[in-house]
Amino acid sequence: MGILSSMFGSKTKEAEKPKPRPKTKPASEEEKIEKEREWQDIEEPFRFVCQGGKAECKYCSTPADIVVTSNTVSLQYKYWATVADKDGKVNLDFKGTCNHPSQQKPLCPPPPCKAVIQLSEWKNYSNTFVNDDNALLVQSTIPCMISGEDIKIIDSGQISEVEELELNLCKRITSTYWLDEDCRKRLREVMTGEYADLVLRTIGFEEGEEIEVVIRDTEGQELKENTKEIVMIGKVNADDIVEFEEFFEFEYPNKGLL
What we know:
Layout (H helix, E strand, L loop, with lengths): L1 H7 L4 H4 L12 H10 L15 E3 L7 E3 L7 E2 L2 E2 L8 H4 E3 L18 H4 L12 E2 L2 E2 L6 E3 L6 E6 L16 E8 L15 E9 L6 E7 L12 E8 L4 E4 L3 E2 L9
Antiparallel strand pairs: 1-2, 1-9, 2-5, 3-4, 6-7, 8-9, 10-11, 11-14, 11-15, 12-13, 13-14
């Protein structure tokens, strides 16, 4: 019976007991770092830095905006940061407080970063020169003389948002063909007395824009008595198809039409 009940899906008392959820092992620091790497742009460390980038000091309460004063050369409409931008009180706009132990005094709040910051020289910069100075990269660092540790760039300041661009498409007719009077069947040839609807599919035209079409036979035959060319004017609709007000009536059979 035990085998049969298992096969037919009936539950035993043991099966009715809820199974404990397996415990997940907390991720190690190495696993967390590896997970962060998966989401990072591998090109980010090599991006050039410009006005509005961000720098971070482990002892300051907030990141700093990078302010470029070394030149007026533009990168994405922003000034390009170089190794000459190394005045901590000017070029790194830290608005937080310095929490390094050397700056803490009894019964006094931590001093503003701007009041105490002292920088050395930039490292790991680019070989690209802006004017006479090397351009900074996201991987560039600069030591703070107060803490003895590097201040790191955490944002290049470059624009990475996708903007909607309006494409200036060339106006052109993509296809031309004739339909029967019921607008259901394409016509390869039109016989005398038949009506046909000219279909033009377009691209790049505005809705309501007029298109003038000249119709003639490829072999120079008459379309109507004493008429080898006929001019038709239509308007482009919302589906980019030209609409003509009237059907075209052929007085002579035509196999090749332009």
